[in-house]
Design goal:
Order of helices and strands: EEEEHHEHHEEHEEHEEE
Structural class: alpha+beta
Helix content: 25-40%
Strand content: 25-35%
Number of strands: 12
Mean pLDDT: 77
């Protein structure tokens, strides 16, 4: 039996289905804490939702399927046995899943396999660690800056910054933050609460620091809520390209 056959079986031989519930509108809502079997390009992988949620792709997918309003749910593509089906490279997904479980990626891959894995990591919203990148390789790094003013509410105004661990560490050296939390496998959120009057000045200063770090605004500014009766929230996205140098 080839290596990995005990955890990856063909669809024809596999009889087990993933644990899920089916709502009246035909949407599959997956249950927390139970094993989940996915069909990825014809190859089956069994894991749990907590592992998958570390990837932004799956975090968004589960968030939509768990929406209380059926009209806002995302209809999932499932195979004939009701398992979530993804039309991706099923063999390479094993390496993606291993990364979600253990923070490790395979070494000494040839160029073709390496590019294939990079493509899959990008699809699922994951950034490989710098230690896995080869000298001279380019990578795009993204960051999101959100600030919210709550003039009519008791909730304090705040600024949040979401980026990779490496970028978050850089920004943490520029200014202090109240708290830090893990958003996904590859993203960290920094939060700072302050008075309503200080929000804009702090956000503007942080944008200037991001510019010095090589980031440029990516896409339009999003005004999420407008009006005196509701919080006013602004979101801006930034990106930069970096070339990994020899250590």
């Amino acid at each position: 039996m080839a290596l990995g056959d005990n955890v990856r079986q063909s669809v024809e031989d596999e009889e087990q289905t993933g644990h899920h519930e089916k709502t009246a509108d035909g949407t599959h809502v997956f249950e927390h804490g139970k094993p989940l079997t996915l069909n990825v390009g014809g190859v089956l992988h069994t894991t749990c939702d907590a592992t998958l949620r570390k990837a932004p792709f799956f975090a968004a997918l589960f968030r939509h399927t768990e929406d209380a309003e059926a009209g806002h749910r995302m209809l999932n593509t499932v195979d004939t046995k009701g398992r979530l089906f993804l039309d991706r490279d099923g063999q390479t997904f094993q390496d993606v899943l291993s990364f979600l479980r253990s923070d490790r990626l395979p070494k000494h891959l040839d160029r073709e396999d390496r590019e294939r894995l990079m493509t899959e990591l990008e699809f699922f919203g994951l950034d490989p660690p710098h230690s896995w990148m080869e000298p001279g390789e380019e990578r795009e790094e993204t960051a999101t800056l959100v600030w919210c003013t709550n003039r009519q509410f008791s909730v304090k105004s705040c600024v949040t910054f979401v980026a990779s661990r490496e970028v978050a560490n850089e920004v943490s050296q520029i200014c202090s933050w109240d708290g830090e939390s893990q958003v996904t496998k590859s993203q960290v959120k920094l939060t700072k609460t302050m008075s309503d009057e200080d929000v804009l000045a702090f956000a503007s200063a942080l944008e200037g620091e991001l510019s010095l770090l090589g980031f440029r605004e990516h896409g339009p500014t999003e005004q999420l809520c407008v009006g005196v009766e509701w919080p006013n929230t602004v979101r801006r996205r930034f990106s930069r390209h970096r070339t990994l140098m020899h250590v």
